[in-house]
Please model this.
Amino acid sequence: MNYGIPMQYFLILAAIMFFAGVYGFLTRRNLITILMSVELILNSVNINFLTFNRYLFPHKMEGMFFSLFVIAVAASEAAVAIAIIINIYRRFATINVEDVDEMKY
Amino acid sequence: MINFGYTFWILLIPFVMFVLLGLYGHKLKPKLSGLLGTAGLAIITILSYITAFKYFFTSEKVDGAYQKIIAFNHVWLQFTDKLHIDIGMLLDPISVMMLIVVSTVSFMVHIYSIGYMKGERGFERFFSFLSLFSFAMLGLVVATNIFQMYIFWELVGVSSYLLIGFYYEKPSAVRAAKKAFIVTRFADLGFLIGILILSFNTKTFDFVSLTDPNGISLMQGSRTAFLGLSVMTWSMIFVFMGGVGKSAMFPFHIWLPDAMEGPTPVSALIHAATMVVAGVYLVARMFPIYVFSAPLALDIVAYVGGFSSLFAAIIACTQTDIKRVLAYSTMSQIGYMMLALGVSKYGGHEGLGYMASMFHLFTHAFFKALLFLGSGAIIHAVHSNFMDDMGGLRKYLPITHITFLVACLSISGIPPFAGFFSKDEILAAAFEHNRFLFFVEWAVAGITAFYMFRIYFGIFWGKEREYHHTPHEAPATMTIPLIVLAIGAAFAGFLPFHDLITSDGKPFATSLDLAIAIPSVLVGILGIAVAWVMYKKESLLPDKLAATFKYSYKWAYNKFYIDEVYLFITKKIIFRFISYPIAWFDRHVVDGTMNMIANVTQNMSFRIREFQSGQLQKYAFAFVTGAITLAILFMYLWK
Model:
C-alpha cells in the first residue's frame, strides 16, 4: 500500500514532538507551559497510535479508538490540572513551579 | 460429706470488691465505698465462721482425725498430664483457723479505717487495696497446692507494697514500700527455688499428697545429697527462706520497722496480724515434710525463730516510736511461733509445739491487732508517733486505755489473758525438746513484758505533755473494733486448741504445767515491775541506765546496725563490684551498639534527604533519565 508518505516520517514527527514535550516539561518554569508540554507528549503518542494502526493493521480500528480515549483523558486532565494551577495561584500567588516546593524533606 | 462449695465466695467477694472500688470508687461517695468494702468483709467473716463451725463440729473424722477437704479444685494451667497448676480451696484445721483470723481482723480493720481514714485523700483507693489484700491473704491460706500459695504469696506482697506506700507523696513512705518489696522479693526468690527443687523431686505441687505422712513423696529425694544435706533439706531451707522474708525474721527483718510508714490500720492488719504470720503458716503447712524429711531444716527454723525473738525484743526496749516498738514486738512474737514449730515433733503430745504455734498465732493476731489499732487511736489523738510527745493520756482516752492494757497483759502472758495460755504452751514445748531455747524464750517473755509496759506507762501514765488541743477519744467506728478485739485478746485463750488444731488432726490432752507456768508468769510480772519503777513516774532512772550501758544501749537503739550492714554490702560490695560494671557494659556495649546503628542511619538519612527537594521538575528529570537509561539498557543488553 502506498499512501505517498512513508511511515517513518510520521514516526519522526511523533518523536520530535515527544522530545519537544519532554524538554518543555523539564525546562519551563511556568505551570501553564508545563501543561502545554504534557499535551504535546500526549498528542505525539496519538500520532504513533494512528500511524501504526493505519500502516500495519489497516482493517482494524483499535488504534483510532485508543487515540480518541487519549484525547478525552487529555481534556479531563487539562481541566483538573488547570483547577490545581488556579488553587496553587491562590495559595502562593505564583504559578512558577520552582516556588512551589513545600513538599520537601 | 458436707458441701463446702460455697466457700468459693470467700475468695470471689473481696476480689470483686477490689475491682469495683478500684475502677469505680472515685465515682462513689467515699463513705459509700468504705461501707461497701466493709459489707463485703462482713459477708466473708460470716461465711468463714459458718465454714469453721461446719468443719470442726459436723464434718466427718477418720480415726478421730480431722481430714483435709478439697472444697473445690480447678485445673488452671495444664502443661502436661502430671504438671499442672490448680486453683482451689483446701480446708483443714489450720486453714480454717486462718480464715477466721484473717476475716475477723480484716473486718475489724475495715470498720476502724472508716473512722481513722476519714477525710483522707484516696479513701476509696485504701479500701480497694484492703480488699485486694484480703483476697490475696484468704487465697494464700486456702491454697491447695504450693504454686497457688506462691502466687497469692506474691499478691500479698504487692498489696503490702501498695499499702505501705499509700501516702505516696511522702518520700519516706515510698522508700519504705520499696524496701519492703525488694527485701521480701529477694527472700521469695529462695521460696521459688525451694518449690522447684521440692516439686522436681516429688513430682507434685499438691499439698495433700506432699504432706501425707504415709505418702511416698516424703521419702523421695531424701537420699540424694548435695554438700552433705539431702535434697529435701535443701528445698525446705529455701522454702523457709521465703517464710523468713515474709515473717520478718532475722536477717530479713529490716523491712518490717520501716513498713510502719503505712497507715496504722494497715500496720495492724498486714504487718501484725495476718501477712507477717504467713511464714509461720507456710512452715506449719509443710510441717510433715520438715519433720520426716528435713529435721535439720526444722532445727534452723527453731534457732532462727529463737534468735529473732531475742534480738527483736532487745531492740524494742530502746525504740521511741511506738509503732516501731510494736513492729519489733511482732517480730519477737513471730519468733516464738517459729521456735514452737521448730521444736515440735509429729503426732499427739509430741506435736505440742505445732499446736502451741498455731495457738499463739491465733491469740497474737488479736492482741497485736488490738495494740496497733490502739496506737492508731493514740496517734489520732496526739498527732505524733513518738513516746516523748505522749503521757498521762489515760484520762482522755479511757476506752483506748483499758483495751490497750488488756492487750499488754495478754502479750506479757499474765493469766487469764489469751497470751498466757499460748505462750505457756510454747514454753512447755520448748522445755521438752530444747532446754537452751526454753531459757532464751523465758528471758524474752520478761523482756516483752518490760517493753510493752514501758510504752504503756509512758503513754497512759507519766507526765502530761503540752498538747496542741485536748486529746479526745476516737469515734465509735474506731473504739468498737478495739472492744471486740479486746474481748478476743482476753478470752481467746480458753479455746480448746488441742482438740481442734494439732499436727496430725487428732485431739490430745494437755494440762497446765505449773512448773513452767509459774516462772513464766513471774518473769512477766518482774518485767512489768521494772517498767513500773522506771516509767510510771517521770524519773531519771532510764536515762541513767542508758548512760551506764552506753555502748550496748547505742547498739540496740541503732538496731544493731543491721541496716548499715545491708547498706554496706549492697552499696559498697554488690553495687561497686557487680552492678556498676554490669551497668557500664549495658550502657556502653549493649546500648552503644544500638545507638551506633541509630546514629549511622540518621547521618545517612540527613545526607540523602536533600534529594527530596520539592522541586517537581527535578523529580521528573530523574524519572525521564531513568526511563531512557532503562530503555537503552533493554535495547542493547537484552538480546
